[in-house]
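This section describes the prediction task in plain terms. A model, or a person checking by hand, is given the sequence of a single protein chain and must write out its three-dimensional structure as a string of C-alpha coordinates. No templates, partner chains or ligands are provided. The sample shown here is typical of the held-out split.
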Amino acid sequence: MSVMTAGRSVTEAARSRTFGPLYSRNVRAVVARGLMATKSSNWMVMLSGFFEPVLYLISMGVGLGAIVGTVQGPGGTVISYAAYIAPALLAVSAMNGAVYDSTWNVFFKMNFAKLYQGMLYTSLGPLDVALGEILLALLRGLMYATGFTAVMGVMGLITTPWAVLMIPASVLIAFGFASFGMGITSFMKTFQQMDWINFVMLPMFLFSATFYPLSVYPTYIQWLIQAMPLWHGVELLREISVGSFSTATALHVLYYLVMIALGMILTTGRLRRLFLR
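The expected answer:
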Protein backbone atom coordinates (compact mmCIF):
# COMPACT_ATOMS: atom_id res chain seq x y z
CA MET A 1 0.00 0.00 0.00
CA SER A 2 1.42 3.41 -0.90
CA VAL A 3 1.89 6.27 1.54
CA MET A 4 -0.84 8.27 -0.24
CA THR A 5 -3.28 5.39 0.02
CA ALA A 6 -2.45 4.89 3.67
CA GLY A 7 -2.96 8.60 4.28
CA ARG A 8 -6.38 8.53 2.60
CA SER A 9 -7.46 5.48 4.59
CA VAL A 10 -6.57 7.19 7.86
CA THR A 11 -8.48 10.31 6.84
CA GLU A 12 -11.52 8.36 5.72
CA ALA A 13 -11.48 6.32 8.94
CA ALA A 14 -11.33 9.52 10.97
CA ARG A 15 -14.29 11.03 9.14
CA SER A 16 -16.39 7.90 9.65
CA ARG A 17 -15.90 7.88 13.43
CA THR A 18 -18.72 8.88 15.75
CA PHE A 19 -16.88 12.04 16.79
CA GLY A 20 -15.32 12.59 13.37
CA PRO A 21 -11.68 13.72 13.43
CA LEU A 22 -11.92 14.83 17.08
CA TYR A 23 -11.69 11.49 18.90
CA SER A 24 -10.45 8.02 17.96
CA ARG A 25 -10.82 6.38 21.41
CA ASN A 26 -7.07 5.79 21.60
CA VAL A 27 -6.07 7.90 24.60
CA ARG A 28 -4.07 4.89 25.82
CA ALA A 29 -1.45 5.40 23.11
CA VAL A 30 -0.77 8.98 24.26
CA VAL A 31 -0.55 7.92 27.91
CA ALA A 32 1.76 4.99 27.11
CA ARG A 33 4.13 7.25 25.19
CA GLY A 34 4.15 9.78 28.06
CA LEU A 35 4.90 7.13 30.68
CA MET A 36 7.82 5.82 28.63
CA ALA A 37 9.24 9.37 28.32
CA THR A 38 8.80 10.00 32.05
CA LYS A 39 10.54 6.76 32.96
CA SER A 40 13.57 7.60 30.83
CA SER A 41 14.09 11.30 31.55
CA ASN A 42 11.64 13.09 33.86
CA TRP A 43 11.53 10.98 37.02
CA MET A 44 13.86 13.29 38.97
CA VAL A 45 11.63 16.28 38.23
CA MET A 46 8.60 14.33 39.44
CA LEU A 47 10.39 13.29 42.62
CA SER A 48 11.40 16.86 43.44
CA GLY A 49 7.78 17.97 43.08
CA PHE A 50 6.78 15.59 45.89
CA PHE A 51 9.32 16.92 48.39
CA GLU A 52 8.50 20.61 47.90
CA PRO A 53 5.19 20.63 49.85
CA VAL A 54 6.66 18.28 52.47
CA LEU A 55 9.48 20.76 53.13
CA TYR A 56 6.95 23.61 53.38
CA LEU A 57 4.90 21.56 55.84
CA ILE A 58 7.90 20.87 58.04
CA SER A 59 9.28 24.42 57.96
CA MET A 60 5.97 26.29 58.27
CA GLY A 61 3.72 23.76 59.98
CA VAL A 62 6.20 22.53 62.57
CA GLY A 63 8.49 25.58 62.85
CA LEU A 64 5.98 28.44 62.68
CA GLY A 65 3.29 26.20 64.13
CA ALA A 66 5.19 26.09 67.42
CA ILE A 67 4.66 29.86 67.67
CA VAL A 68 1.10 30.03 66.32
CA GLY A 69 -0.31 27.10 68.29
CA THR A 70 -3.88 26.09 67.45
CA VAL A 71 -6.23 27.76 64.96
CA GLN A 72 -9.88 27.48 64.03
CA GLY A 73 -10.52 25.18 61.10
CA PRO A 74 -13.68 24.48 59.04
CA GLY A 75 -16.86 24.22 61.09
CA GLY A 76 -15.16 25.84 64.07
CA THR A 77 -12.95 22.81 64.71
CA VAL A 78 -9.83 23.71 66.69
CA ILE A 79 -6.76 22.17 65.03
CA SER A 80 -3.01 22.63 65.06
CA TYR A 81 -1.45 25.09 62.62
CA ALA A 82 0.28 22.20 60.85
CA ALA A 83 -3.07 20.46 60.34
CA TYR A 84 -4.47 23.77 59.06
CA ILE A 85 -1.90 24.34 56.31
CA ALA A 86 -1.32 20.69 55.33
CA PRO A 87 -4.50 20.35 53.18
CA ALA A 88 -3.72 23.73 51.59
CA LEU A 89 -0.21 22.57 50.67
CA LEU A 90 -1.72 19.41 49.19
CA ALA A 91 -3.94 21.58 46.97
CA VAL A 92 -0.89 23.63 45.97
CA SER A 93 1.00 20.43 45.16
CA ALA A 94 -1.87 19.21 42.96
CA MET A 95 -1.90 22.57 41.16
CA ASN A 96 1.87 22.71 40.66
CA GLY A 97 2.15 19.16 39.35
CA ALA A 98 -0.76 19.59 36.94
CA VAL A 99 0.42 22.99 35.72
CA TYR A 100 3.98 21.78 35.09
CA ASP A 101 2.80 18.81 33.03
CA SER A 102 0.19 20.77 31.10
CA THR A 103 2.23 23.94 30.42
CA TRP A 104 6.03 23.66 30.20
CA ASN A 105 5.90 20.02 29.17
CA VAL A 106 3.22 20.74 26.56
CA PHE A 107 5.01 23.91 25.39
CA PHE A 108 8.13 21.93 24.51
CA LYS A 109 6.20 19.14 22.78
CA MET A 110 4.11 21.62 20.79
CA ASN A 111 6.72 24.18 19.71
CA PHE A 112 10.02 22.29 19.61
CA ALA A 113 9.50 18.54 19.42
CA LYS A 114 6.44 19.01 17.14
CA LEU A 115 5.06 15.91 18.82
CA TYR A 116 1.38 16.79 18.54
CA GLN A 117 1.63 17.42 14.84
CA GLY A 118 3.00 13.92 14.38
CA MET A 119 0.26 12.43 16.57
CA LEU A 120 -2.52 14.23 14.72
CA TYR A 121 -1.18 13.07 11.36
CA THR A 122 -2.14 9.56 12.51
CA SER A 123 -5.63 8.37 13.41
CA LEU A 124 -5.44 10.20 16.76
CA GLY A 125 -7.75 13.18 17.19
CA PRO A 126 -7.17 16.35 19.26
CA LEU A 127 -9.43 15.05 22.03
CA ASP A 128 -7.26 11.89 22.29
CA VAL A 129 -4.15 14.05 22.65
CA ALA A 130 -5.77 16.43 25.15
CA LEU A 131 -7.16 13.62 27.33
CA GLY A 132 -3.89 11.69 27.14
CA GLU A 133 -1.77 14.63 28.28
CA ILE A 134 -4.23 15.54 31.01
CA LEU A 135 -4.37 11.94 32.27
CA LEU A 136 -0.58 12.00 32.57
CA ALA A 137 -0.89 15.12 34.71
CA LEU A 138 -3.56 13.40 36.82
CA LEU A 139 -1.35 10.36 37.40
CA ARG A 140 1.32 12.70 38.70
CA GLY A 141 -1.24 14.47 40.90
CA LEU A 142 -2.47 11.12 42.24
CA MET A 143 1.08 10.09 43.14
CA TYR A 144 1.74 13.39 44.94
CA ALA A 145 -1.59 13.31 46.77
CA THR A 146 -1.14 9.73 47.98
CA GLY A 147 2.40 10.36 49.18
CA PHE A 148 1.59 13.65 50.91
CA THR A 149 -1.49 12.21 52.61
CA ALA A 150 0.71 9.40 53.92
CA VAL A 151 3.15 12.01 55.28
CA MET A 152 0.24 13.75 57.02
CA GLY A 153 -0.73 10.43 58.60
CA VAL A 154 2.80 9.81 59.85
CA MET A 155 2.88 13.32 61.37
CA GLY A 156 -0.41 12.71 63.15
CA LEU A 157 -2.31 15.34 61.16
CA ILE A 158 -5.16 13.06 60.10
CA THR A 159 -7.95 12.80 62.66
CA THR A 160 -10.88 11.45 60.62
CA PRO A 161 -11.41 8.61 58.12
CA TRP A 162 -12.91 11.21 55.75
CA ALA A 163 -9.37 12.43 55.10
CA VAL A 164 -8.84 9.61 52.59
CA LEU A 165 -11.14 11.55 50.26
CA MET A 166 -8.44 14.19 49.96
CA ILE A 167 -6.73 11.94 47.40
CA PRO A 168 -9.56 11.89 44.79
CA ALA A 169 -10.31 15.54 45.61
CA SER A 170 -6.68 16.42 44.81
CA VAL A 171 -7.01 14.62 41.48
CA LEU A 172 -10.11 16.71 40.76
CA ILE A 173 -8.11 19.88 41.49
CA ALA A 174 -5.28 18.69 39.25
CA PHE A 175 -7.80 17.92 36.48
CA GLY A 176 -9.13 21.46 36.60
CA PHE A 177 -5.71 23.08 36.34
CA ALA A 178 -4.41 20.62 33.73
CA SER A 179 -7.40 21.02 31.40
CA PHE A 180 -7.02 24.80 31.38
CA GLY A 181 -3.22 24.80 31.45
CA MET A 182 -2.87 22.92 28.18
CA GLY A 183 -5.34 25.19 26.39
CA ILE A 184 -3.64 28.36 27.62
CA THR A 185 -0.21 27.03 26.66
CA SER A 186 -1.37 26.59 23.07
CA PHE A 187 -1.40 30.40 22.78
CA MET A 188 2.22 30.73 23.99
CA LYS A 189 5.00 31.02 21.43
CA THR A 190 8.06 32.13 23.45
CA PHE A 191 9.68 31.38 26.80
CA GLN A 192 9.05 34.98 27.86
CA GLN A 193 5.32 34.44 27.40
CA MET A 194 5.51 31.28 29.50
CA ASP A 195 6.81 33.36 32.43
CA TRP A 196 3.29 34.76 32.77
CA ILE A 197 2.19 31.39 34.10
CA ASN A 198 4.51 31.72 37.10
CA PHE A 199 3.37 35.33 37.47
CA VAL A 200 -0.20 34.07 37.98
CA MET A 201 0.60 30.99 40.08
CA LEU A 202 2.72 32.76 42.71
CA PRO A 203 -0.03 35.17 43.89
CA MET A 204 -2.51 32.28 43.97
CA PHE A 205 -0.13 30.31 46.18
CA LEU A 206 0.47 33.21 48.57
CA PHE A 207 -3.02 34.69 48.80
CA SER A 208 -5.45 31.75 48.50
CA ALA A 209 -5.75 31.38 52.29
CA THR A 210 -2.91 28.87 52.19
CA PHE A 211 -1.19 30.02 55.39
CA TYR A 212 -3.85 32.17 57.05
CA PRO A 213 -7.65 32.54 56.90
CA LEU A 214 -9.48 34.57 54.28
CA SER A 215 -10.90 36.87 56.96
CA VAL A 216 -7.58 38.72 57.39
CA TYR A 217 -8.16 40.52 54.06
CA PRO A 218 -10.48 43.44 53.29
CA THR A 219 -13.83 42.42 51.80
CA TYR A 220 -13.00 43.47 48.24
CA ILE A 221 -9.80 41.39 48.33
CA GLN A 222 -11.75 38.42 49.69
CA TRP A 223 -14.06 38.49 46.65
CA LEU A 224 -11.06 38.46 44.33
CA ILE A 225 -9.47 35.51 46.15
CA GLN A 226 -12.72 33.55 46.13
CA ALA A 227 -12.82 33.85 42.35
CA MET A 228 -9.44 32.10 42.02
CA PRO A 229 -9.44 28.31 41.53
CA LEU A 230 -6.78 27.49 44.13
CA TRP A 231 -8.86 28.97 46.95
CA HIS A 232 -11.67 26.53 46.15
CA GLY A 233 -9.18 23.66 46.23
CA VAL A 234 -7.72 24.78 49.55
CA GLU A 235 -11.15 25.10 51.17
CA LEU A 236 -12.34 21.78 49.72
CA LEU A 237 -9.38 19.84 51.11
CA ARG A 238 -9.56 21.62 54.47
CA GLU A 239 -13.21 20.65 54.87
CA ILE A 240 -12.48 17.05 53.93
CA SER A 241 -9.47 16.87 56.29
CA VAL A 242 -11.68 17.47 59.34
CA GLY A 243 -14.85 15.85 57.99
CA SER A 244 -16.81 19.12 58.00
CA PHE A 245 -19.15 19.21 54.99
CA SER A 246 -21.64 21.86 53.93
CA THR A 247 -23.24 23.41 50.88
CA ALA A 248 -19.93 25.16 50.26
CA THR A 249 -18.27 21.75 49.75
CA ALA A 250 -20.59 21.00 46.83
CA LEU A 251 -19.96 24.47 45.39
CA HIS A 252 -16.20 23.88 45.46
CA VAL A 253 -16.64 20.59 43.60
CA LEU A 254 -19.01 22.24 41.09
CA TYR A 255 -16.45 25.00 40.48
CA TYR A 256 -13.88 22.42 39.38
CA LEU A 257 -16.35 20.45 37.28
CA VAL A 258 -17.19 23.61 35.33
CA MET A 259 -13.48 24.45 35.09
CA ILE A 260 -12.75 20.99 33.68
CA ALA A 261 -15.53 21.21 31.09
CA LEU A 262 -14.48 24.67 29.90
CA GLY A 263 -10.81 23.69 29.88
CA MET A 264 -11.44 20.58 27.77
CA ILE A 265 -13.47 22.60 25.26
CA LEU A 266 -10.70 25.20 25.05
CA THR A 267 -7.88 22.66 24.70
CA THR A 268 -9.61 20.47 22.12
CA GLY A 269 -10.64 23.48 20.07
CA ARG A 270 -7.14 24.94 20.10
CA LEU A 271 -5.48 21.67 19.04
CA ARG A 272 -7.96 21.26 16.22
CA ARG A 273 -7.46 24.86 15.07
CA LEU A 274 -3.67 24.61 15.17
CA PHE A 275 -3.10 21.21 13.58
CA LEU A 276 -6.22 20.20 11.66
CA ARG A 277 -6.78 23.19 9.43
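For orientation: The CA atoms of residues 215 and 222 lie 7 Å apart.
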